[in-house]
UniProtKB/TrEMBL annotation:
Keyword tags: Hydrolase
Domain of life of the source: Bacteria
GO MF: hydrolase activity
Name used for this protein in its record: AB hydrolase-1 domain-containing protein
InterPro entries for the chain: AB_hydrolase_1, AB_hydrolase_fold, AB_hydrolase_sf
Hydrolase listed as a keyword: yes
One Pfam family here: Abhydrolase_1
């Protein structure tokens, strides 16, 4: 299995009225289903898949509106993504799997476990899935443009070549020099659609906007979390989006927002940010090892 040369199986599967692209890395036992973040793709899990090294199969989906999956008008939000994932699992004949979600994918994983409980034997949340406190009195749309403004601007840009896209990312703090490597380049390479010299990121802005607003509905998120019967393991990054920032999920937030979850454990992953927890080491190794142990504890 050589994830760096694209030898994972790639294909398409039916979701809930939309076709989803996927990547599949083989391994022993029942597949783990992997769900990515808000502007990402299934290739977000390339590092974790390599570090799994066949200890578990990994089925990673492009969520609707991202990657090579369909991009319908409207019909976004965590419940819709959960219906897509459940339909895709049905197509593969999968039930009772461990679900791992990173960032927004963690919110989708929680929705799947709450609303389609037969699909989830366990849920692993990676730096996402719990409500985050919003500044009081701030309009949600204004908050969206503040938090995701640079990402939305990137989605509208054209790049003449893949190397120019790499050059766009290299000076940004998301992937410091120590984190830059084949996994990041595989992720960024897949992120682009079209042909040179008019390459553009694949994620649809309408999908990003609709999904982000849905994650701000804290009461709906808490209701889903309280409905999850499967065990939940959360791995959180030591730092925020970028090095030197406070974590998105500090201990007070984790303690308060996880209280409604029946079976919840939390692990802090040192020396990671929101991005490098999945796409660089030590994050990818920590996630892979924790995933194998967690799947075993779930009987999978």
């Amino acid at each position: 299995m050589d994830v760096l040369t694209g030898r994972e199986a790639r294909g398409r599967v039916a979701g809930d009225g939309v076709e989803l692209a996927f990547g599949f890395w083989p391994g022993r036992g029942k597949p783990v289903v992997a769900l990515h973040g808000i502007t990402a793709s299934y290739v977000n899990f390339v590092g974790i898949a390599e570090r799994l090294a066949g200890r578990r199969p990994l089925l990673a989906l492009d969520l609707r509106g991202r990657g090579d999956s369909g991009k319908p008008e409207g019909q976004y939000g965590m419940a819709q993504h959960a219906r897509d994932v459940a339909a895709a699992m049905d197509a593969f004949g999968l039930d009772d799997c461990v679900i791992i979600g990173h960032s927004m994918g963690a919110f989708v994983a929680a929705a799947l476990a709450a609303e389609h409980p037969g699909k989830a034997a366990g849920v692993m949340l990676v730096d996402g899935g719990l409500p985050l406190p919003a500044p009081p009195g701030v309009d949600p749309v204004a908050l969206l443009d503040t938090v995701l403004g640079p990402q939305l601007a990137r989605l509208r840009q054209q790049f003449p070549s893949r190397e120019s896209y790499f050059d766009f990312w290299r000076p940004l703090p998301a992937f410091p020099a120590a984190a830059w490597g084949p996994w990041v380049e595989a992720y960024l390479d897949y992120d682009l659609g079209g042909t040179e010299p008019q390459l553009m990121p694949k994620a649809a802005e309408a999908a990003v906007r609709g999904d982000y607003l849905d994650t701000l509905n804290a009461e709906a998120l808490r209701e889903r979390l309280s409905a999850i019967k499967a065990p939940v393991l959360m791995l959180s990054a030591q730092e925020g989006f970028y090095p030197g920032q406070p974590p998105l999920y500090g201990e007070p937030v984790v303690s308060a927002e996880s209280a409604a979850v029946a079976r919840f454990e939390h692990q802090l992953v040192p020396h990671t940010t929101h991005y490098t927890i999945a796409l660089a080491d030590p994050g990818a190794t920590s996630c892979a090892d924790a995933l194998v142990e967690f799947a075993g504890s779930c009987g999978k």
